[in-house]
Amino acid sequence: MTPLQRYIAEEIATDHVDGLLSRREALRRLALIGMGTAAATALIAACGEQKTAAPPTSESPTPSPTPSPSAGGPPPGSAGALPTSPITWAGPAGQLQGAWAAAPQPRGGVLVIHENKGLNDWVRSVAGRFAGIGYSALAIDLLSGQGGTAAFSDPAAATAALSKIAPEEFVANLKSGVDELARRVPDHKLAAVGFCMGGGLVWQLLAAGAPQLAAAVPFYGPAPDNPDFSGSRGAAVLAFYGALDQRVTSTEPVVRAALEKAGMVHDLVTEPDANHAFFNDTGDRYNAAAAADAWRRVQDWFGQHLG
Q1: Cα–Cα distance for residue pair 288/24, rounded to 1 Å
Q2: What mean pLDDT value characterizes the chain?
Q3: Could you give the CA distance from residue 290 to residue 243 in angstroms, rounded to a whole number?
Q4: d(CA 242, CA 219)
Q5: Which of 39, 149, 277, 306 has an alpha carbon within 20 to 30 A of 217's alpha carbon?
Q6: Domain with residues 85-306, CATH architecture
Q7: What is the pTM of this model?
Q8: Pfam families, alphabetically (predicted)?
Q9: How far does the chain reach from its first CA to its final CA, in angstroms?
């Protein structure tokens, strides 16, 4: 399996262990990415054992004087969100699709990289939230080469299709997205923000060299193997982790060391009592307190490094 397939497989297995998926559904989704029943059963058992044995994260969580995870109210930034419109542009190997949210008087531009579910309504809403605070946003659809996310009626099939895309194709398309963003927001600084798989792809983009980026914000994204970020020294990195998300948070020391070696400005935040995907208000692991704190920090970071 590729590292991405392994990551997605572990996420599916962990969702079952945490009670978010039935065993039958977990096995179905694992089969879609190419795992046989025996291998899938072994992975689920291993994830269960890891959860039982996992020690608390070694990171000291950053205090967050925000409401409790169950607090009501709209998701952070949603009140002022602007609408998105579908766009296409010429990518390195064919037409790419995305959702565009234009700020009336942009302070900068943001490339939004989706989770392993593809470009869905939640990702579009995040692009709209960035536009609402003054940063024109382009949410790229990394399933463009397969007809786009909308071509998949089964979200699990969309995830499986993403798992089979080569890392080089992802990076090439993301760089094309940055170029398209620069064309649409000329003479402004740019950032990339990604969630889950998309957070991991922010790290991949930085490792591949992204000199156009002034800022990067990976949310709970797994670290690449032996990353070298020297080609992206101009990007100030704000990364988020959940204290309960040992699977991804355990990779934080890898990126911390690489960022320090490259001499990059960075702040790596571990949100207390938060799990993987804590920012996604449509998911079962949404944590309102952590999401509100992260949104505040992102705005402050962009104010410092984008304008």
Answers
A1: 30
A2: 93
A3: 10
A4: 9
A5: 149
A6: 3-Layer(aba) Sandwich (3.40)
A7: 0.93
A8: DLH
A9: 42
